[in-house]
Amino acid sequence: MVGLQSPKLITGVRFPPGLLIQFDILSSFDIIPSMPEKEPQSQFEIYEMPEGRGQVVVSFTNGEHSIGVMTLNPGQELPVHTRPVDEQLVQLSGLTRLDYYEGDIVVEQVLLYPNETTVVSANRRHSHVNPSGEEPSLIMSRFDGDISEVVTNIRQNKKIG
Q1: Digitized pLDDT (tens) for each residue of the chain, 161 residues in all
Q2: Residues facing residue 39 across a β-bridge
Q3: Dihedrals phi, psi of 102, to nearest 5 degrees
Q4: Which domains does the chain have, with CATH numbers?
Q5: Cβ–Cβ < 8 Å for 68, 141
Q6: Residues 5, 30 contacting (CB under 8 angstroms)
Q7: Under DSSP, is residue 134 helix (H, G, I), strand (E, B) or coil?
Q8: Which residues of 105-121 are buried (b: 16+ CB within 10 A; e: fewer)?
Protein backbone atom coordinates (compact mmCIF):
# COMPACT_ATOMS: atom_id res chain seq x y z
CA MET A 1 0.00 0.00 0.00
CA VAL A 2 3.00 2.28 -0.07
CA GLY A 3 2.38 5.27 -2.34
CA LEU A 4 -1.30 4.45 -2.99
CA GLN A 5 -4.07 6.77 -1.98
CA SER A 6 -7.77 6.07 -1.54
CA PRO A 7 -7.69 2.26 -1.78
CA LYS A 8 -10.95 0.57 -2.83
CA LEU A 9 -12.22 -2.92 -2.06
CA ILE A 10 -13.98 -4.85 -4.82
CA THR A 11 -15.78 -7.96 -3.63
CA GLY A 12 -18.19 -10.60 -4.80
CA VAL A 13 -16.96 -12.42 -7.89
CA ARG A 14 -19.13 -15.54 -8.27
CA PHE A 15 -17.73 -18.73 -9.73
CA PRO A 16 -19.40 -22.20 -9.70
CA PRO A 17 -22.69 -22.36 -7.74
CA GLY A 18 -22.14 -21.97 -4.03
CA LEU A 19 -18.52 -20.81 -4.32
CA LEU A 20 -17.93 -17.17 -3.55
CA ILE A 21 -14.41 -15.85 -3.79
CA GLN A 22 -13.58 -12.51 -2.25
CA PHE A 23 -10.50 -10.54 -3.20
CA ASP A 24 -9.10 -7.08 -2.80
CA ILE A 25 -8.00 -4.81 -5.62
CA LEU A 26 -6.21 -1.67 -4.58
CA SER A 27 -6.36 1.26 -6.92
CA SER A 28 -5.43 4.85 -6.63
CA PHE A 29 -6.94 8.01 -8.01
CA ASP A 30 -3.44 9.19 -8.84
CA ILE A 31 -3.02 6.42 -11.45
CA ILE A 32 -6.41 6.89 -13.15
CA PRO A 33 -6.08 9.00 -16.30
CA SER A 34 -7.70 12.38 -15.97
CA MET A 35 -10.95 12.97 -17.85
CA PRO A 36 -11.23 15.83 -20.33
CA GLU A 37 -12.72 18.96 -18.85
CA LYS A 38 -15.28 19.28 -21.66
CA GLU A 39 -17.14 16.69 -23.66
CA PRO A 40 -15.51 15.77 -26.98
CA GLN A 41 -17.18 17.09 -30.11
CA SER A 42 -18.25 14.75 -32.90
CA GLN A 43 -15.78 14.60 -35.75
CA PHE A 44 -18.34 13.22 -38.20
CA GLU A 45 -19.23 15.41 -41.16
CA ILE A 46 -22.47 14.64 -43.01
CA TYR A 47 -23.11 16.00 -46.51
CA GLU A 48 -26.09 15.78 -48.81
CA MET A 49 -25.20 14.78 -52.36
CA PRO A 50 -26.77 16.76 -55.21
CA GLU A 51 -29.87 15.66 -57.12
CA GLY A 52 -31.21 13.58 -54.22
CA ARG A 53 -28.55 10.91 -54.66
CA GLY A 54 -28.02 10.39 -50.92
CA GLN A 55 -25.57 11.35 -48.19
CA VAL A 56 -21.86 11.00 -47.46
CA VAL A 57 -20.46 10.79 -43.94
CA VAL A 58 -16.79 11.69 -43.64
CA SER A 59 -15.87 9.62 -40.59
CA PHE A 60 -12.11 10.13 -40.56
CA THR A 61 -9.53 11.73 -42.82
CA ASN A 62 -5.96 12.78 -42.17
CA GLY A 63 -4.27 12.90 -45.57
CA GLU A 64 -2.97 9.35 -45.25
CA HIS A 65 -6.15 7.42 -44.38
CA SER A 66 -9.82 8.18 -44.86
CA ILE A 67 -12.99 6.35 -43.86
CA GLY A 68 -16.51 7.26 -44.86
CA VAL A 69 -20.01 5.93 -45.29
CA MET A 70 -22.25 6.62 -48.25
CA THR A 71 -25.99 6.21 -48.54
CA LEU A 72 -27.33 5.96 -52.08
CA ASN A 73 -31.06 6.49 -52.29
CA PRO A 74 -33.16 3.91 -54.20
CA GLY A 75 -32.53 4.02 -57.94
CA GLN A 76 -29.72 6.58 -57.64
CA GLU A 77 -26.14 6.41 -58.90
CA LEU A 78 -22.91 8.37 -58.74
CA PRO A 79 -21.36 9.81 -61.89
CA VAL A 80 -18.46 7.84 -63.36
CA HIS A 81 -15.27 8.70 -61.45
CA THR A 82 -11.83 7.50 -60.41
CA ARG A 83 -9.92 7.67 -57.14
CA PRO A 84 -6.16 8.22 -56.81
CA VAL A 85 -5.80 5.25 -54.41
CA ASP A 86 -7.53 1.89 -53.96
CA GLU A 87 -11.11 2.18 -52.70
CA GLN A 88 -11.85 -0.56 -50.16
CA LEU A 89 -15.60 -1.16 -49.82
CA VAL A 90 -17.89 -3.09 -47.51
CA GLN A 91 -21.62 -3.22 -48.20
CA LEU A 92 -23.46 -2.59 -44.92
CA SER A 93 -27.08 -2.84 -46.11
CA GLY A 94 -29.06 -2.82 -49.32
CA LEU A 95 -27.31 -3.47 -52.64
CA THR A 96 -24.68 -1.64 -54.65
CA ARG A 97 -23.80 -2.38 -58.24
CA LEU A 98 -20.35 -1.27 -59.32
CA ASP A 99 -20.12 -0.52 -63.03
CA TYR A 100 -16.56 -0.55 -64.42
CA TYR A 101 -15.82 1.44 -67.56
CA GLU A 102 -13.36 1.52 -70.41
CA GLY A 103 -14.04 4.81 -72.13
CA ASP A 104 -17.81 5.22 -72.07
CA ILE A 105 -18.56 1.50 -72.20
CA VAL A 106 -19.45 -0.64 -69.17
CA VAL A 107 -17.10 -3.63 -69.32
CA GLU A 108 -17.89 -5.25 -65.97
CA GLN A 109 -20.58 -5.14 -63.30
CA VAL A 110 -20.25 -6.37 -59.72
CA LEU A 111 -23.23 -6.60 -57.37
CA LEU A 112 -22.43 -6.23 -53.65
CA TYR A 113 -24.75 -7.71 -51.03
CA PRO A 114 -24.63 -6.93 -47.29
CA ASN A 115 -21.33 -7.96 -45.64
CA GLU A 116 -19.53 -8.39 -48.96
CA THR A 117 -16.30 -6.54 -49.64
CA THR A 118 -14.35 -5.52 -52.71
CA VAL A 119 -11.51 -3.25 -53.74
CA VAL A 120 -11.75 -0.82 -56.65
CA SER A 121 -8.22 -0.33 -57.97
CA ALA A 122 -6.73 3.16 -58.03
CA ASN A 123 -7.61 5.17 -61.16
CA ARG A 124 -10.16 2.62 -62.40
CA ARG A 125 -13.21 4.32 -63.92
CA HIS A 126 -16.35 3.20 -62.14
CA SER A 127 -19.71 4.24 -60.75
CA HIS A 128 -21.80 3.15 -57.77
CA VAL A 129 -25.43 2.31 -58.55
CA ASN A 130 -28.28 1.43 -56.20
CA PRO A 131 -30.31 -1.01 -58.32
CA SER A 132 -33.12 -1.19 -55.77
CA GLY A 133 -36.21 0.91 -56.31
CA GLU A 134 -37.17 0.58 -52.65
CA GLU A 135 -34.21 0.26 -50.26
CA PRO A 136 -31.26 2.63 -49.70
CA SER A 137 -27.75 1.30 -50.20
CA LEU A 138 -25.33 1.81 -47.32
CA ILE A 139 -21.65 1.26 -48.10
CA MET A 140 -18.47 2.01 -46.13
CA SER A 141 -15.27 3.11 -47.87
CA ARG A 142 -11.68 3.10 -46.70
CA PHE A 143 -8.80 4.77 -48.50
CA ASP A 144 -5.12 4.31 -47.62
CA GLY A 145 -3.43 7.28 -49.25
CA ASP A 146 -4.09 10.92 -50.02
CA ILE A 147 -7.64 11.64 -51.17
CA SER A 148 -7.68 15.22 -49.92
CA GLU A 149 -8.98 16.47 -53.29
CA VAL A 150 -11.91 14.01 -53.09
CA VAL A 151 -12.71 15.13 -49.53
CA THR A 152 -12.51 18.80 -50.59
CA ASN A 153 -15.05 18.06 -53.35
CA ILE A 154 -17.37 16.29 -50.90
CA ARG A 155 -17.17 19.31 -48.61
CA GLN A 156 -18.53 21.50 -51.42
CA ASN A 157 -21.91 19.82 -50.91
CA LYS A 158 -24.54 20.97 -48.40
CA LYS A 159 -23.48 20.05 -44.85
CA ILE A 160 -26.40 18.54 -42.94
CA GLY A 161 -24.66 17.32 -39.80
Answers
A1: 444 344 444 444 444 454 444 444 444 444 444 445 555 556 899 999 999 999 999 998 998 999 999 999 999 999 999 999 999 999 999 999 999 999 999 999 999 999 999 999 999 999 999 999 999 999 999 999 999 999 999 999 999 98
A2: none
A3: -125, 115
A4: 45-159 (2.60.120.10)
A5: yes
A6: yes
A7: coil
A8: eeeeeeebeeeeeeebe
